[in-house]
Amino acid sequence: MATGIGSLPFEDPDKALALILTELPEAPHWPQLPRRSSREHFVYQFLQPLVACGVVVLRGNRWVFDMARDTSAECLTDFYTTCLPAEEGDPECRRSFLPSPEAAAGFYAFLSRMRSEDLDRARFLKGQIAGPLTVALELKDEEGRPAYYQGDLRDIIVRTLALNARCQAASLSGLGRTPIIFVDDPAISACGSRLHLALNRETILEDLNFIFTAIRTEGAVTGVHSCEAVDWSLLMESQVQILSLDAYRFGASLIPYAAQLRAFLERGGVVAWGIVPTLDDPFRESGESLLRRLDDLWDQLFPKGPDRASVLRQSMITPACGTGLLTADQAERIYRLTAEVSRRVRQLTPSSEGTKP
């Protein structure tokens, strides 16, 4: 089954949806549209409640946590006054954690379109959020210290992301199909690096699992995407159900974790193979060349593991990453290649009914 990662290089949501529904009809995703405006940045899309209560503010062209003001304690109180009831299910408080129409035009266009579409071909509906490590390392306080290393700031980031993901899942579930919510967290590659020795593996797992639990509360399937070479064992130890990677550039980074990957598949996990390049020229590849590349990777990963048919049944096909910074022609080529590789993989497993996360 084919799906996308999230972003597309269009300003018009309808153009993005036309491409998604044509090429990815079984697991369409709502499109993030960064070219529309700066409001499509993750601060507005996923952390708007922190802006609304004054915890996160704009300093020049940079979003920061402003905790030095006399009113910072009051702002935190305002946040938790909304957050805690939302976590308990209060519908009015939960609505404030959805992205606004100005910050996520693609999300609302997707909901509207899906309500009027014939969804016979759709088995899943996909959403996405920015990951907690990526957000908390990028957002800093007024002194330039990353929010991740400050427990109170990391807590409100994780809670906000979890509620946003949960509210997305609830909205998509209301359309009558199972939601999939990906947590896009490329900064996980920092874990274990010399520049980030203070990153704690257990804390990363705790934060991810908090978000995954919130997503599954709404009956949704959890995914995590990273477009770097990361410590894959960390993610496979989490409660995630779909592991998504840039298999075109970093597929070989899975090889040292082949045993853990086989165990992940044996307990029902799914791998989303991002085999269609987004940083390399997609016009230099074909569906056939990409399938060969993927088949070579599978040969290295599963020489004696699960039989190939089992691997294929627990696979999804995706672009390597989002396409929001590319040209429209490139994005269209990438989505068509994604659909073509998916069709070719299905031909290798004629008895398969498709991926079942």
Mean pLDDT: 92
Structure class: alpha/beta
Beta-strand percent range: 5-15%
Biggest sheet, spatial arrangement of strands: 3-5-6-7-8-9
Question: Can you count the beta strands?
Answer: 9
- The H-and-E topology, N to C, reads as HHEEHHHEHEHEHEHEHHEHHEH
The gyration radius over C-alpha positions equals 20 Å
Distance between the termini: 11 Å
Number of helical regions? 14
Uncertain residue ranges = none
Query: Oligomeric state of the chains?
Result: single chain
Please summarize the sheet with the most strands: 6 strands, parallel
Per the principal axes of the C-alpha atoms, what is the gross shape? globular
Approximate helicity band? 40-55%
Structure description:
With 357 residues, the chain is α/β, with parallel strands linked by helices. It is built from 14 helices and nine strands. The chain has a six-stranded parallel beta sheet with strand order 3-5-6-7-8-9. Strands 1-2-4 form a three-stranded mixed beta sheet. A hairpin with a 2-residue loop joins strand 1 (56-59) and strand 2. Helix 7 (151-173) packs parallel to helix 8 (201-217). It is globular. The N and C termini lie close together (11 Å). The model has no long low-confidence stretch (mean pLDDT 92).
